[in-house]
User: Which sequence fits this backbone?
């Protein structure tokens, strides 16, 4: 099968690497890809959210499958558009991707079907939102833009004045555009966070091995949120009992709820969970593979990913037995200095071989470019240095050993990936 992967980050690099292990995988393409993906797939310059462009590219390449990885094109209906043209695509249709595309929809669904989540209220004007927050008088309070906001649409507010500023920036200044037409004001929850990605064909759901993201930019979970500074799998907080509870109270009910609403979900469904003192609750749904979680989950997958994708498309996932390696996996992200704020691009990276790799680890490229055989930074998150090991410590030692051999000016990485895992 010739495959086009849509996207251009570390997640897409990890997906491509895994697809290439399949004996069924023929030619593999990526758009837009990046400097490191170039060693694994032919890349094109059609943007990931350019639906018409991707449809045209898929036709001209005559691919057998298009794997749509990022949230924006999924929510905007890229899978629907491809299917309309008779092109096989992996990922949910727009009406199912709404689970990530609208927090108002996902909260409504969870309430209707009794799926555990934080209490909330929806507002479509700033005055009502602020009256509610003031009346409630409970801080921190959580304010979320309804739509997609590059992962930045959630604001945790410690006081009324912070809440007022948050509502103003989302609903009046429109910093996230139309995503801020409505806000969800939500109860603040506490507890360890767990990411569980799951394969589902709308009938069967197979959770993957658990993972833990590290969202804050600095050690000790300090500083602003990022797209993720590293990840580990498994997540030590996610034990068998928790997994059993989540399967019965969250995963299966979500799949059933989506079917009842006439929005069957086929693809990778991502559950962002918080293990609160009152039990696991859903913090968010994503309609896709997570980043950087994918970089630590897919390396542990022993079953053929392409086989799984075909089974999902043909709704025969229940026939498969999906196997995972017992090894732990760790990914340390090397980012540009200044990220998640302003940062420079085009800084030369040293220490990588000609393929942008190193011998004892896997380097998933997130934001790089390649020119004349050299690699340069081209984004906030630059590289995901990933290693497997018999234990989490062994995986981390390998990954950090490799990080020490790679450099670029002002490179920044967290030194405590996996260390705070047990807290
Ligand atoms: P989200 O984009 O919805 O995953 O939210 C981003 C981050 O905000 C989450 O990973 C949590 O750390 C935090 N968060 C979101 N909702 C809540 C909540 N109700 N209570 C506490 N923290 C939250
Ligand atoms: N790591 C969280 C996400 O992919 O949204």
Assistant:
């Amino acid at each position: 099968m010739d495959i086009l992967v849509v996207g251009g980050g570390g997640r897409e690099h990890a997906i491509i690497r895994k697809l290439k292990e399949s004996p069924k995988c023929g030619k593999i393409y990526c758009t837009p890809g990046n400097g490191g993906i170039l060693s694994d797939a032919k890349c094109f310059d059609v943007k990931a959210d350019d639906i018409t462009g991707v449809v045209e590219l898929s036709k001209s390449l005559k691919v057998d499958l298009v794997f749509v990885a990022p949230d924006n094109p999924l929510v905007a209906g890229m899978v629907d558009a491809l299917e309309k043209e008779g092109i096989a695509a992996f990922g949910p249709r727009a009406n199912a991707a709404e689970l990530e595309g609208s927090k108002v929809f996902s909260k409504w669904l969870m309430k209707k079907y009794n799926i555990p989540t934080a209490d909330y209220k929806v507002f479509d004007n700033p005055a009502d939102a602020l009256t509610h927050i003031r009346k409630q008088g409970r801080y921190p309070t959580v304010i979320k833009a309804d739509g997609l906001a590059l992962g930045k649409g959630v604001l945790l507010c410690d006081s009324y004045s912070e809440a007022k500023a948050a509502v103003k920036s989302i609903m009046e200044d429109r910093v996230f555009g139309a995503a801020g037409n409505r806000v969800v004001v939500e109860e603040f929850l506490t507890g360890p966070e767990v990411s569980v990605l799951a394969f589902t064909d709308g009938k069967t759901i197979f959770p993957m091995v658990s993972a833990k993201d590290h969202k804050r930019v600095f050690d000790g979970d300090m500083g602003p949120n990022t797209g993720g500074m590293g990840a580990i799998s498994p997540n030590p907080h996610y034990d068998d009992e928790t997994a059993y509870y989540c399967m019965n109270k969250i995963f299966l009910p979500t799949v059933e709820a989506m079917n009842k609403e006439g929005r069957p979900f086929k693809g990778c469904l991502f559950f962002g969970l918080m293990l609160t003192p009152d039990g696991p609750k859903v913090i968010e749904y994503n309609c896709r593979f997570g980043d950087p979680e994918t970089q630590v989950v897919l390396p542990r997958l022993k079953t053929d990913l392409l086989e799984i994708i075909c089974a999902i498309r043909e709704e025969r996932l229940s026939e498969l037995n999906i196997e995972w390696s017992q090894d732990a996996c760790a990914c340390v992200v090397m980012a540009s200095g200044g990220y998640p704020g302003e940062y420079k691009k085009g800084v030369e990276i040293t220490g990588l071989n000609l393929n942008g790799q190193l011998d004892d680890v896997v380097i998933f490229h997130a934001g790089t470019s390649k020119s004349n055989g050299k690699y340069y930074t081209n984004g906030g998150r630059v590289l995901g240095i990933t290693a497997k090991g018999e234990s989490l410590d062994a995986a981390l030692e390998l990954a950090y050993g490799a990080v020490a051999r790679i450099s670029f000016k002002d490179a920044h990485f967290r030194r405590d990936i996996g260390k705070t895992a047990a807290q």
The chain has a mean pLDDT of 97. Residues 240-260 form the longest helix (21 residues). The radius of gyration is 21 Å. Residues 143 and 185 are 5 Å apart (CA to CA).
